[in-house]
Amino acid sequence: MLAAGAAGLGLAAPAPAAVVARERATTPIDAYAGHAVWSSYDRRARRYRLVAWYAGKRHRLPVAPRRTPFDADLGADERGGVQAVYSRCRREPTGGCDLYRYSFATRTERRLAISSPRGSEGMPTVSGRHVAFVRYATVPRIYVGTIGGEGHVRRLRGGTRERNAAGGDTGPASLDLAGSRLAVAWVYEPRRCGGRPVDDADTAFANELWLYRANGGRRRLLGRGCDLDATADRRFDDVSLAGARRLAFTLGTRGGGFVMRRLDTRTGRARDADLTGLSSSYMASVQDGRWTWVVLSGRRTRIERHRLRFAPARQPAGG
């Protein structure tokens, strides 16, 4: 199995956190180079607004709102600045969705030409002029294109596409692009788990962590696992790449907690930070340099910034 209880890992507790914002509804989050973006619910408009944070200041971006939270991703632009990509849909949450880019340098938005007039795209991630995204279908598919590309995209092979008797979801859960590397957390419903077949009375899921060379399509499986009867949450999620070799992601633990793992993708060495103390309200997280941004649910959603303490992992690097 992939996970053991976080208490059994001998990890240090998280350092004190700074509460950056409080919101009315939960939201995904992304961060890059000291910037962060998330969705803020506007009760009067009954829409989500895209907001950004930088150098201690929060401001609303001048883009149209949407009915569901934005799937925004931050990355470097071709000049070394910061850009965001996200989708906006005619039929929320995944119908008639197109991809958009926002430039922090020019404070302008434009629709990306790689959006299909007949398809529906979402979950974008950006690095320089390259964009990876999901095109929704019975089994969502992963594609890579360029910001200036006129509809020219390349499809990447997805993860395992099994479906069990319960007929659950299959597809990517999280993507992050850095340079030519693309990390993907993939979830599916296995036909077998724990050495036995899965029937329609079981609640079972499996999860894989993949690393792609997005410019050539080559890929490597970094980890895989499955669980029966919802004994743990999704295993790999909230993936974020840094530099030429580091990958961070959350790893679900059997007791219902979470570990943030930093993995050296060349050596396989891993370091873990315990998020179990946050597990009762944990919703999302992202790694940005030395900082970890965390979204916590409650009467008001809290967005916090942590300086986590990492220790050598006692589990295998893949899980």
How would you describe this structure to a colleague?
- This protein is mostly beta strands and 319 residues long.
- It has strands at residues 18-23, 29-32, 35-42, 47-54, 57-60, 73-76, 82-91, 95-103, 108-111, 121-127, 130-135, 141-146, 153-156, 171-178, 181-188, 192-193, 196-197, 204-213, 219-228, 236-242, 246-252, 258-264, 270-274, 282-288, 291-296, 301-306, 311-312.
- It has a five-stranded antiparallel sheet, with no helix packed on it. A four-stranded antiparallel sheet has the order 1-26-25-24, with no helix packed on it. Strands 2-3-4-5 form a four-stranded antiparallel sheet, with no helix packed on it.
- β25 (291-296) and β26 form a beta hairpin.
- Residues 1-10 have low confidence and may be disordered.
Short note summarizing the structure:
The protein has 319 residues and is mostly beta strands.
**Rg result:** 19 Å
- Secondary structure: number of strands: 27
Global shape: globular
The unreliable regions are: 1-10
Oligomer: single chain
Could you tell me the mean pLDDT? 86
Helix-strand string: EEEEEEEEEEEEEEEEEEEEEEEEEEE
Determine the N-to-C terminus distance: 8 Å
